[in-house]
Amino acid sequence: MLTQQRKAHILEVLRRDGRIIAKTLSQELGLSEDTIRRDLRELAAEGLLQRVHGGALPASPALADFSGRQGVAPGAKAAIGRAAARMIQPGQVVFLDGGTTAVQVARNLASDLKATVVTHSPSVAVVLAEHPTVEVVLIGGRLFKHSVVAVGAATFAAIAQVRVDTFFMGVTGVHAEVGLTTGDWEEAAVKRAVCRHAAETVVLASHEKLGAASPYVIAPITEISTLVVEDGLPDYLIEPYRRLGIAVQTARDP
Amino acid sequence: MLTQQRKAHILEVLRRDGRIIAKTLSQELGLSEDTIRRDLRELAAEGLLQRVHGGALPASPALADFSGRQGVAPGAKAAIGRAAARMIQPGQVVFLDGGTTAVQVARNLASDLKATVVTHSPSVAVVLAEHPTVEVVLIGGRLFKHSVVAVGAATFAAIAQVRVDTFFMGVTGVHAEVGLTTGDWEEAAVKRAVCRHAAETVVLASHEKLGAASPYVIAPITEISTLVVEDGLPDYLIEPYRRLGIAVQTARDP
DNA sequence: CTTGACTTTGCACGTTTATGCACGTTTTAT
DNA sequence: ATAAAACGTGCATAAACGTGCAAAGTCAAG
């Protein structure tokens, strides 16, 4: 295998999985870890990824504002993204929320999926612009920079004009009693509005969100039908939601 | 085997396998590696493939997001972007079109500029999400993937609700008689609509756009007040526009 | 048919690049 | 506090590289 080809492969794996583990990759490619480490160092020098102990993480300048958060649980987020992407049936109309997890869902849509994705996240729109068959509807409004999503009156008005089959919601807190929560008042209102216009709502949550609560409540937990979480979590974390009749889907982290 | 025939074969193998390994190919064809290397060098000089250590890789698609498209000719477009960015006054409300040139404008806004940018391009929105002070208004609609901008009825409705001081328009053709043109009918309609809701329209055009015409006419050239072009162009290219009373701003390429 | 200009190819040479290993250091986990 | 894993650096080797050159081949004008 050519060196440049290998580097391209590394970037592809990074995009797909949200992380690189040097040892794993060296075994996969049948090369010494030194070589992989060298590649990672060079790619990092070009600013194409971020080097960390044990491997590498994305450096995506387009999502630089996220970069701090992106490091939280990249493998898990990518796995959740894949699991959510698999839930979308051909012909469906779905709403994709903003945030890093939603971007992972967009990245992992099957490349032959014919469906419509509605989103108020320009990041999601940019990713899906490269998808060959998915129809994208962009919801406008005032840009809330912290989360990179549209919010405000115009956003509400636009959301009122669509009805979707499934809403894939990102949150910062999932709590059996407090409900679904997030860190911005206006964002919470938008999520609530989308929820009302969706036949079904699916919440994407990596483990640090479970049992946590943020300042602004979006809706009670019973509003949602499915919770997608990473695999291998202790039972006591997910049991409360099962007991409330919520389907808990676990995403394997390959 | 004829040289040209061999080169055609190389390109075919490259398309089929996604890569060329010089040694393998030389054995396959019963020629010395030197000959193959020479071919690869020449094909690379023609831009038909990308030369790498050990062989070659495809020229465009695999590499497009690898080394980055905008690295190709960073000079002119970036210079035009900087020049346009300098034209924005504090407190103004401007509309930024889609396209790579508009993204350059967004990247080059002074980091302390307090202004409002309206755009139907998610790419521009993502870039401006990192800007500390600029207010961003995102116009929604159906996503036209080729240009990565929102189009359609919803886009029209949203545009009708804003009035901006300056519209920075990207085009694919600027011609003194034909006018401003672009390659998509719906995009042309959107640009025309924005034009009507702007006090002033500025067109950003790198040299290859001047004197060129695309299928769909946006507006007559007299609709615009300023044309931003790169520096160092021959007079005969810009003189026709000056004669029509259009201010031609040249962007130094430092 | 011959001549001379030009092209193509393979080889020799010295240079650059890629890779794996050894060694000592730093980071992480226990 | 300690052990294991990951790290960076220097080094040796082999592969791949470019260049200059000469032999073989091609072609058109004479």
TrEMBL record, chains A, B:
<keyword id="KW-0678">Repressor</keyword>
<dbReference type="Pfam" id="PF08220">
    <property type="entry name" value="HTH_DeoR"/>
</dbReference>
<dbReference type="GO" id="GO:0043565">
    <property type="term" value="F:sequence-specific DNA binding"/>
</dbReference>
<dbReference type="InterPro" id="IPR001034">
    <property type="entry name" value="DeoR_HTH"/>
</dbReference>
<dbReference type="Pfam" id="PF00455">
    <property type="entry name" value="DeoRC"/>
</dbReference>
<dbReference type="InterPro" id="IPR050313">
    <property type="entry name" value="Carb_Metab_HTH_regulators"/>
</dbReference>
<keyword id="KW-0805">Transcription regulation</keyword>
<dbReference type="InterPro" id="IPR000485">
    <property type="entry name" value="AsnC-type_HTH_dom"/>
</dbReference>
<dbReference type="InterPro" id="IPR036388">
    <property type="entry name" value="WH-like_DNA-bd_sf"/>
</dbReference>
<protein>
    <submittedName>
        <fullName>DeoR family transcriptional regulator</fullName>
    </submittedName>
</protein>
<keyword id="KW-0238">DNA-binding</keyword>
<dbReference type="InterPro" id="IPR014036">
    <property type="entry name" value="DeoR-like_C"/>
</dbReference>
<keyword id="KW-0804">Transcription</keyword>
<feature type="domain" description="HTH deoR-type">
    <location>
        <begin position="3"/>
        <end position="58"/>
    </location>
</feature>
<dbReference type="InterPro" id="IPR037171">
    <property type="entry name" value="NagB/RpiA_transferase-like"/>
</dbReference>
<dbReference type="InterPro" id="IPR036390">
    <property type="entry name" value="WH_DNA-bd_sf"/>
</dbReference>
<dbReference type="GO" id="GO:0003700">
    <property type="term" value="F:DNA-binding transcription factor activity"/>
</dbReference>
<dbReference type="InterPro" id="IPR018356">
    <property type="entry name" value="Tscrpt_reg_HTH_DeoR_CS"/>
</dbReference>
